[in-house]
């Protein structure tokens, strides 16, 4: 039986404001990519410039197969800032989809 590998969504969003730009975001992405390449049991799906529509579309298409969601970017205690901080999304809705 050929079963689909569980998916790990890696979402990245950076500020367009030079003062708030996260300088090591690309390094974080590369480090995670290197670590996950060694694991053949999951499918790594990177999302650069994450936005609310991209995330919603992804979770609708891959419902039930996402096992982990990693976000790198600006965030608060219960929200993540997407799309250059134009959108603030509360994480509870995404947690309920995993």
Order of helices and strands: EHEHEEEH
What percent strand? Answer: 25-35%
Q: Helical proportion?
A: 25-40%
Give a count of the beta strands, DSSP E runs of length 2 or more.
5
Write down the Rg.
14 Å
Name the structural class: alpha/beta
Strand sequence of the main sheet, in spatial order? 2-1-3
Detail the poorly predicted runs: none
Specify the overall morphology.
globular
Beginning-to-end CA distance, first to last residue: 24 Å
Mean pLDDT: 81
> What is the number of helices?
3
Outline the structure in words.
28% of the residues lie in helices and 27% in strands. It contains 3 helices and 5 strands. The chain has helices at residues 25-37, 52-61, 92-95; strands at 7-12, 43-47, 66-72, 79-82, 87-90. Helix 1 (25-37) links the parallel strand 1 (7-12) and strand 2. The model has no long low-confidence stretch (mean pLDDT 81).
């Amino acid at each position: 039986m050929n079963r689909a590998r569980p998916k790990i969504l890696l979402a990245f969003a950076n500020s367009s404001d030079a003062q708030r730009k996260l300088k090591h975001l690309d390094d974080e992405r590369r480090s995670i990519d290197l670590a996950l390449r060694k694991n053949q049991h999951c499918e790594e799906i990177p999302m650069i410039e994450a936005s609310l529509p991209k995330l919603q579309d992804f979770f609708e298409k891959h419902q039930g197969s996402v096992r982990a969601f990693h976000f790198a970017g600006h965030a608060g205690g219960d929200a993540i800032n997407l799309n250059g901080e134009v959108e603030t999304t509360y994480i509870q809705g995404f947690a309920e989809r995993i």
